[in-house]
Amino acid sequence: MVCDRYADGERTGKRAIYYHSGLDIGGSEGLVEVIAATDGLVVSVGETVLDGHKKDTPVSPRYDVVYMLDGRGWYYRYSHLKEIDESIVPGRVVSRGERIGLLGKEGGSGGWSHLHFEIKSRQPSGKWGTQEGYAFLWEAYQREYKPHVIAVARPHHVIFTDETVTLDGSRSWSKSGKIAGYEWRFDDGTVVKTPQVQRTYGRPGRYSEILRVTDDEGNLSYDFGVVIVVDRENADRAIPSIHPNFYPTTGIRAGDPITFKVRTFNTTAGKEVWDFGDGSNKVEVQSDGNAVKLAPDGYASTTHTYEKPGDYVVSVTRTNEHGVTAIGRLHIHVDAKLE
C-alpha cells in the first residue's frame, strides 16, 4: 500500500516543487512488520553506528532508523520505525526476510504512518546517490503474490479549480499481456470505460477516483487516482488530505475482523466517516487532524467484518470548516470462510 503523501504543495495548499528520494510505503502503524529486503550487515541502529561506517557513507543515524549494507556495497535505509527489533544490532548479519521492526511514523514522517525505504549506491561521479528501488519492489511483489492483473492509476495530480486533468490507467499490467477492460467510476455517477479520461473539477477538495481493471480471464484489480484541487480564489487555503489504511491486507476471509485506521491532515474540523462498501451502516471516527505529528494516538481506529466474500471499495471522508472534503479509498479482497 503506497503512502498517501505527495508533496509540500499538498500540505500547504500551494503549488510547489518537491523532491523526495527513496520510496514511502504506507501501512497501519504498529501492526505491519518490516522485514529485511536483502541479506546484509547491520551498520546502524538508532544513534549507534558501526565503526568504519561513520565517514564517507550515506549513513545518517536517527532513533527510528536502521541501515544495512549488502554484498554490492549498497546501503539500505529503513525509517520511521515504531519499534526496532531487539535482535537488530550493529555488526550482525541479517538474512533476507528477517524482522527489523514495526512500521510507524516516528522521526521526520510528517505524521504519516509509513516505511521510508531507500537504497544508496556509489554513482559514476564517485558520490553517494539514490539507487531507484521501485522496479525492485514491483518485481518482489509479483514474485511473492503472483497477481494476474495490477491496476495503476498513477500519477496523482494537483490542479486549480476549473482546470482539466487527464486520468490515465494505461500503465496497468496483466500477466496474460492483455487488459480486457478499464472502468473509471466517479462520485457523480459517471462511468467511463476507457483507459484515459479527462475531468474538470469545479470544487476544491481531495478526490480519489476509482479505476477497475480486468484481464481476459475475469481477474480484477483496483487503484485510485488522486486529484488535489486547489481553490483558485483562495489558493492559500490548505486542502485537507487523508490517509486511510487497514490490517491485515492479505489473507482476509469472511468473518475476519479488519482494523481500519485513518488520519486527516491540514484540518482539525469535522470527523472521518467510513463507508465499508457492503451496505452496512456508516461509522464515524475522529483523528487528531495531525495536530501533533508524532502523537501515539494520532490515527483513529475502528474494526469491521465482512460477512460475504468479494471485492469491496471502502471510502472515508472528512470535511473542513470551509466545506472542502478529502476522500480516501481502499480496496479490500475477502475470500470465503474455510470449511
Written account of the structure:
It is globular and about 60 Å long. It has 3 domains: 8-143, Glucose Permease (Domain IIA) (Distorted Sandwich); 147-238, Immunoglobulins (Immunoglobulin-like), CATH 2.60.40; 240-339, Immunoglobulins (Immunoglobulin-like). By secondary structure, it is mostly beta strands. It is built from 2 helices and 27 strands. A hairpin with a 4-residue loop joins strand 19 and strand 20 (220-230). The strands form 6 sheets. Strands 13, 16, 17, 19, 20, 23, 24, 26 and 27 form a 9-stranded mixed β-sheet that branches. Strands 1, 3, 4, 5, 6, 8, 10 and 11 form an 8-stranded antiparallel β-sheet that branches. It has a 3-stranded antiparallel β-sheet with strand order 2-9-7, with no helix packed on it. Residues 1-15 have low confidence and may be disordered.
Summarize the model shown.
This protein has helices at residues 8-12, 134-145; strands spanning 23-26, 33-35, 40-45, 48-49, 66-69, 75-79, 81-84, 93-94, 99-103, 114-122, 128-130, 149-150, 157-160, 164-168, 173-174, 179-185, 191-192, 196-200, 205-215, 220-230, 241-247, 257-265, 272-275, 283-285, 300-305, 310-319, 325-334.
